[in-house]
Structures are given as structure tokens and as C-alpha cells.
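quick one, 147 residues, struct below
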Amino acid sequence: MTARAHGFTLMSMLFILVVLAALGTALAALSQRQQLGSAGELAAAKAYQAAFAGLEWGSHQVLRPASQPGCFATRSFTLPDQLAGYTVTVTCTRTPSSGTVTDGDQSLAFYTLVATACNIAASGACPNTGTTEPAYAERQLTRGLSR
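---
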């Protein structure tokens, strides 16, 4: 066997090693992107649930029988347990701003609740318009009520 034949095998092995290393790097990058995507989806789902919890809280404030009908001041709070780390800001708007609307023999006031939840609050409130954090998740839900 000549020296040329041994060199050919060495070059083939180096080529195969380079291809396998490139393939391994591509698979690692793909795996990382999938994990980041999954984490983003989970954060978005938690933000949605936090906003929904804020709407439920606001609905209770407006509709509870012991209270006078009326809007509450804008309120921001953090949530416990599975939604720890999320802040929700709830606002209430009444239409008409004072008085009621008459529908037959009923007098009604209309309320619009807006709940905005996020995982990186700005000064304790959502939304955080100044963040450039890629892990930032925010959801906003609206509900109309009448009483």
C-alpha cells in the first residue's frame, strides 16, 4: 500500500467528523429554539390566565350586592401560587359617567373592565412599554357589564 492511500482515508475521516460536528451544532441550536418557544408559550398562557383573574376580580367589585354600583380606582396587584411573578392592572370605565340609562322600567349603568397582565411590570403596573426583554409576556382582556 502506498502513502497516498493512507492519506485518502485520513481526509475522508476528517470530512465525516466535520459534517457530524456541523450536524450536532445545528441540532443543538434547533433544540434551544424549541425550548425558548415553549417557554414563551407558557408565559403567554400564564399572562392570559392572570388577565382573566383580573377580570373576575373587577367583575366582583362591580357586581357584588353589598356595594353601591360604581367603578373602582385603577388597581394593580401581583398574583399568588401558579401565577406568581405576574402583575395585573385592572381599570373600570362607567357609561354614562354619572347616572343611568333607562331601558323600559330598568335603570342601567354600563361598565367596561380592562385587565392587562404581564410578567415584567413597570413601576408595579402593566403594560410595560419600555421593556425590550425577549421573555416579556403580556395579555389584555376586556369585559362589558351592566348593573
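Strands lie at 75-78, 87-95, 101-103, 106-108, 110-118, 138-146.
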